[in-house]
Amino acid sequence: MDKKFINIITRNSFEVIKSAGFTKKDEFIDINDNKIAEGIPYHIHRTRDKQEFYMTSAQHETNSILIFKEKGGLSDFYRYKSLIDKKSEIYLQETPTIPTETDYENGFITLYFARQANDENAKIFEISQNDFELQTPFYEKIALELKITGNEDNVISFNEVAIETIDALLPGLSLIVSSLKHYRGSRFSTSSPSSTSGGSTGGSSGGGGGGY
User: How many helices and strands in the chain, by DSSP H and E?
Assistant: First the structure.
């Protein structure tokens, strides 16, 4: 059996039932349709998408194999495997977007976020534009445009609306993104370098608000 797929099942398990029972005669088969002898201990993995998988051994071990109920289990497995294979081809990595001087000249930056599609409580994390454009059904993804230069009050007002709108589509985003994320005050600001206030007069260069 493909260990990669077993690893996918274990990663997606929200519950593992240890010492679930012992195999009975002609009750289970393996991936090659071979009958599993009776008296073999097994455990059960329940995945987040409400599937159940039986594996040998009372608890999960490196040599555990998938076993299937004689009636229907194997066909259900292949349908599930086809779906998971498509979803799990690509695993996205957390990749924060760093604004460039061109972004600051334009006044805006687009950030990209993802979350595992089958778990609303999963972490929301920032990804690159390239990853955002990939076909990855295993993830929910969304783009957020933020204003990063200009009058601070205007920036906050604009970004609060943008974040609130996106949060309705990907709940929880507003908890990890500040309205002043990547904000840089005007280069003509009178504020000190450590301030995030953006003024319109003065002579010293403005400070950078930070990524929150």
Answer: 5, 8
Largest CA distance in the chain: 86
- pLDDT average per 10 residues of sequence, the chain (212 residues): 73 86 91 89 84 90 88 60 57 91 96 86 92 82 96 96 94 95 70 37 38 40
115 token code pair: 């979350």
**Distance from C-alpha of 84 to C-alpha of 78, rounded to nearest angstrom:** 10
Distance CA 210, CA 212 (A): 6
d(CA 203, CA 152): 18
Which alpha helices (DSSP H) does 26-151 contain, by range?
73-87, 101-106, 129-132
Q: Beta partners for 116? A: 139
Instruction: Please give the pLDDT value at position 32.
Output: 81
pLDDT at 64: 92
pLDDT of residue 49: 64
Q: Burial-class residue 63 by CB neighbours within 10 Å (0-12, 13-18, 19+).
A: exposed
CA distance 9 to 88: 11
Would you state the structure tokens that stand for residue 33, as one six-digit string?
Answer: 């349709």
Beta strand residue intervals within 148-198, DSSP E: none
The model's pTM is 0.50
The confidence score (pLDDT) of residue 128 equals: 94
What distance in Å separates the CA atoms of residue 55 and residue 6, rounded to the nearest whole number?
9
With a CB cutoff of 8 Å and minimum separation 6, the contacts of 69 are 27, 28, 54
